[in-house]
Amino acid sequence: MASGQGFAFWRKQKIQREYMKLQKKEGKAHPQWKVKYTDSYPEHLKHLYLAEEKMLEKQSKSKRTVVLLEQKCSTTVKSDITQRKFKKKTSNQKAKEEYEKIKAQRAKKKEVNKS
């Protein structure tokens, strides 16, 4: 490096590091991990690589679905527990409901007697 070029070089490296950090946050830092096999292999082997790619995609989908199912199961268990909690009523709530039922029955009897 010649004198006077150090600042620009360091600045360029700093920008590259920041860009890589942003890409990592977005999950796009290593696009070479998702290699498509169709272009770089001989024609007589292409079908093998395509089959392998499909198999890998199916495996990743199955892993995702298993994780999603586990999350759904955990949420249903939580919702069942909360529903049980709401089903249990305090004695005060039970007394209020009984009072409302009796009040409604009395109102019905009065309407029947009046008509």
Describe the structure.
The chain has 115 residues and is mainly α. The chain has one domain (8-114). Helices cover 76% and strands 0% of the residues. It is built from three helices and no strands. The protein starts with 5 loop residues before the first helix and ends with a helix. 0% of the residues are buried. The model has no long low-confidence stretch (mean pLDDT 78). Keywords: Proteasome. It comes from Platysternon megacephalum (big-headed turtle). Residues 81-115 are annotated as: Disordered.
Radius of gyration: 34 Å
**Tally of helical runs:** 3
Parts with pLDDT < 50 across at least 5 consecutive residues: none
Q: Fraction of residues in helices?
A: over 70%
Mean pLDDT: 78
Write the layout of secondary structure elements.
Blueprint lengths: L5 H21 L19 H42 L3 H24 L1
What descriptive keywords fit this protein?
3 helices; mainly alpha; 115 residues; elongated; proteasome; Proteasome activator complex subunit 3
Provide a concise account of the structure shown.
This protein has helices spanning 6-26, 46-87, 91-114. By secondary structure, it is mainly α.
